[in-house]
UniProtKB/TrEMBL annotation:
Gene3D superfamilies attached to this UniProt entry: Methylated DNA-protein cysteine methyltransferase domain, Winged helix-like DNA-binding domain superfamily/Winged helix DNA-binding domain
Residue stretches making up the Methylguanine DNA methyltransferase ribonuclease-like domain: 20-81
Annotated NCBIfam families: ogt
Function statement: Involved in the cellular defense against the biological effects of O6-methylguanine (O6-MeG) and O4-methylthymine (O4-MeT) in DNA. Repairs the methylated nucleobase in DNA by stoichiometrically transferring the methyl group to a cysteine residue in the enzyme. This is a suicide reaction: the enzyme is irreversibly inactivated.
GO molecular function: DNA binding; metal ion binding; methylated-DNA-[protein]-cysteine S-methyltransferase activity
Organism lineage: Eukaryota, Metazoa, Chordata, Craniata, Vertebrata
Reaction it catalyzes: a 6-O-methyl-2'-deoxyguanosine in DNA + L-cysteinyl-[protein] = S-methyl-L-cysteinyl-[protein] + a 2'-deoxyguanosine in DNA; a 4-O-methyl-thymidine in DNA + L-cysteinyl-[protein] = a thymidine in DNA + S-methyl-L-cysteinyl-[protein]
Assigned protein family: Belongs to the MGMT family.
Name under which the protein is recorded: Methylated-DNA--protein-cysteine methyltransferase
GO cellular component, one term: nucleoplasm
Cited PANTHER family: METHYLATED-DNA--PROTEIN-CYSTEINE METHYLTRANSFERASE
GO BP terms in the entry: DNA repair; methylation
Amino acid sequence: QVNSKQGGSPCKEKQVVLLSPLGRIEISGCEKGVHEIKLPKTSLLPRGAEPSALCEVCEGAEETPEPLQQCTAWLRAYFCEPGSTGSLPVPAFHHPLLQRDSFTRQVLWTLLNDVKFGEAVSYKQLADLAGNSRAARAVGGAMRSNPIPIIIPCHRVIRSSGDSGNYGGGQLMKEWLLSHEKLQKEKLAR
């Protein structure tokens, strides 16, 4: 149960499970928006970062609120036809962290809007983009608390050294996502 910002009644939360190349991705949300995307805890990832036809909703497809439908459509496109994500609507978000005004929210929205598919940005560069050049550590905290991974692409934030850095889904998953995007971007450029 997640309470709305106004302290009103709790949301009627629904869950959808998407089978993806990374494993089972759990998505929760309500009529107002997506609350959270939970990545699988996995150490086995597919070889190569090829797009996969295997990406389907395996649980919770009945009576799915529109934001969850948009979220699953967006994630499916991300894994199967990455070039089409730019033309899809980003689902509404309804996580408390993304409702209240904060530096974390600013950083996550900046990341979503300014760091495009196949690009990477350092923690310091993202702090600059979000309006506080000395807040690289705070950017790291914002990445750790990101409730909507992949759509809000915290995997695109890397260390200034070029090292991939930490990731909630694990370093292997972060490297897989970065290489998936790099490969797809190169294909689209051809």
